[in-house]
Design a protein that fits this description.
The complex is a heterodimer.
Chain A: H1 3-14, H2 24-49, H3 57-66, H4 70-97, H5 105-129
Helix pairs in contact in A: 2-4, 4-5
Chain B: H1 14-39, H2 49-56, H3 60-85, H4 91-120
Helix pairs in contact in B: 1-3, 3-4
Classes of the chains: A mainly alpha, B mainly alpha.
Amino acid sequence: MTINTTRNWLVGAIRWFDPRARQVGTWAFSLNRITALGLTLYLFLHLIVLSQLAQGPKAYDGFLATIKSPIFIFGEFLVVAAGIIHGLNGLRIALNSFGIAIPYQKQLFYGLMAVALIGCAFFAVKMFLG
Amino acid sequence: MIAEKSSPKSGENVWLWLIKIVSGVLIVVILGVHFVVNHAIGTGGLLTWQDVVNYYSHPIVPIMESLFIILVVPHSLIGLRGIILDLRPSRGILTAINWLFSIVGVVAVVYGVWLISVLASQPH
């Protein structure tokens, strides 16, 4: 890969996060991609870590004690938030992909993200306040 | 502005797209249950080992969680492949990615279902 190709590739990737002159559709696209990457990474880490379950109560409960620290709970909350956002945005994409509610896709996005906000607030209360 | 005709990227596949869409819709339902059980029940939202074993003792739970893993692993890998397609990989790299994701996907699903069966077989 030449230096110019690498530079173009990097510039293209960074543009995902560039908020200037973006329409809401681009934000929805970027949000879906970013949450997808986070969730995919978490999924495979989650599968590896859950091997603790197969080792019995001492191993798993000891592991749980480690991850009940605030930083881990915050990380878990980010995963839950990403799942809610990605899932609801994905429902909009599924509907639009089959030609449903295309003229209202912006309103649908805003409405579903409002629902996502409520869902995130619910889990934030449950996870941080017990 | 010249309107460009939209055309599929090299490597795109309508069946993979359909699997991703259908699995995604099903995942939303199951993930909702998964999140509530694992994060909204119990002290601090996380279950102890015994809570997990008790949860998996309900006959429907291993079936639901197995279905979840069978849906979510392909969904995530097909989605990741879609992101990689945007980087316009060469045919050789795409072939290697297809093989890698297929192997990782099968291993992840088999391992996940195995883990679920271990939990479901624990005394509660």
